[in-house]
Amino acid sequence: MNFQESWNSNWSRGLVGNQTGRNIGELKESGRGFDLWNEECDLAPATSLTRVGPLLGNDLSNIGNKFSEGRYGSVAPFFVVCKDDNMVSEKFQRWMTQNYSVRKVMELKGADHTAMFWAPQDLSAALLHVARPQA
């Protein structure tokens, strides 16, 4: 199975049975964020980024107890709402914040689905605002 078949298969299955997955072709046809996507130009760089290997490194012995029940929840979860997201509606983003244990919601005006590209300074400021009290 090549990259494109694997990508389409995972998205059409809903990412291993998860009902939140979407078929990438369906998204392209809807014009929600993928209207500028050029398959020929984007497929080559995407395939170069694929790596065969385990999801996690083989040597997990050096992480100690960083991932433990006792430390779970030690950082307050927060959510960044991207006000101009063309992929996920603001209404759905708000629904996610209401249905999960999110302690703080921050809004980024002018940020699309990939906030790190559309509003990197604003996203960095939001992350610092949340991280400083945790340090």
Q: Which SSEs are present, and which pair or pack?
A:
Layout: H1 3-17, H2 24-30, H3 39-48, E1 78-82, H4 90-99, E2 104-108, H5 115-118, H6 120-131
Parallel strand pairs: 1-2
Widest sheet, order of strands: 1-2
Structural class: mainly alpha
Low-pLDDT parts are: 11-23
- C-alpha Rg, in Å? 18 Å
**Gross morphology:** globular
Query: How much β-strand is present in the residues?
Result: 5-15%
Number of helix segments?
A: 6
**Multimeric state:** single chain
Number of domains: 2
Helix content: 40-55%
Mean pLDDT figure = 69
Number of extended strands: 2
Terminal-residue CA separation: 45 Å
| Largest sheet data | 2 strands, parallel
> H/E order of the elements?
HHHEHEHH
Keywords: Hydrolase
GO molecular function, one term: methyl salicylate esterase activity
Textual characterization of the structure:
- The chain is mainly α and 135 residues long.
- It folds into two domains: 46 residues, no CATH class; 60 residues, no CATH class.
- The protein contains six helices and two strands.
- The protein has a two-stranded parallel ribbon with strand order 1-2.
- Strand 1, helix 4 and strand 2 form a beta-alpha-beta unit.
- 4% of the residues are buried.
- About 10% of the residues have low confidence.
Quick overview of this protein structure:
The protein is mainly α. The protein has six helices and two strands, in the order αααβαβαα.
Keywords:
two-stranded parallel ribbon; globular; 2 domains; 135 residues; 2 strands; mainly alpha
